[in-house]
Structures
1.
Amino acid sequence: MSDTPVYDTNNVFAKILRGELPCFKVYEDEKAFAFLDIFPRCPGHTLVIPKAPARNILDIDPDDLAHVAKVAQEIAKA
């Protein structure tokens, strides 16, 4: 039996990506999705996530991770 957790297809981020939970979308492309946090720490608090399923940062393709970081940087400038 493996101790590695399986990706949960019903996690809150997967549900947001599928449109099953509402969000205020800020940005979307083929690899990244950005939306306002429902419990913001400051005005404009935005979450940027990869569209590809990932249990943690180690599961994200390096090119996708770089793209998500670039999107986050561009949103932060806005």
Note: The helical segments are 12-17, 62-77.
2.
Amino acid sequence: MAYKDLQDFSRHLDEKSLLKRIKIDIDSELEITEIADRLSKQYGPALLFENVKVSPFPVRIHAMGACKRICTALGDIILSEGLLNALAHDGHKMGIDAAKKWTSEGHGRKWPEDIEMTKDMKELVSKRWAEYGIH
């Protein structure tokens, strides 16, 4: 199935219960990041934050964060067990992490340090986890 745009894809995820809508106020300053980090480690649902502080727009994250949603984006294809395992394998660098390896290959570029979430933010997200409604 081809999707007209990201909203069309999100509607499809919503219909298949692969998208969780978060209606409470969320801070765009690291709270969303901490939630996304935890979900990526759990292969959790895609999220749509509908009320983001200081933003007139909702924020959608993790839309392609699990094999099931990747298959859905590709038209509900069925991938072989071996290909699914390859997609789920954590051994290969992807995205910005893949570009970082270029320094050792002679492509010098200084990368910023990784952001470490503050203890206060981790505690806030843990405290509010039930409010988010993410299981």
Note: The chain has one domain: 6-104+113-124.
3.
Amino acid sequence: MASPGFDDLKWNAPVRPGDILKGQVTINEVKRSTSKPDRGVVKTFCEIINQDEVVVMSIRAINMIACRSGKDN
């Protein structure tokens, strides 16, 4: 599925060779598309954190996902 885009991309600190990175994703909103009910919209906030627990990158993303039909839920 396509992604409608992202907002608020921030590079907070440099990433260097040898850094150990981990990611954390928070789901902020989930809703079914009104125009295409077989699809949903998920808004997330993502952070990439280095070995020193410094957030090196963050982004707010909007993603389209496939949905099951209403009778399957």
Note: The chain has one domain: 5-72.
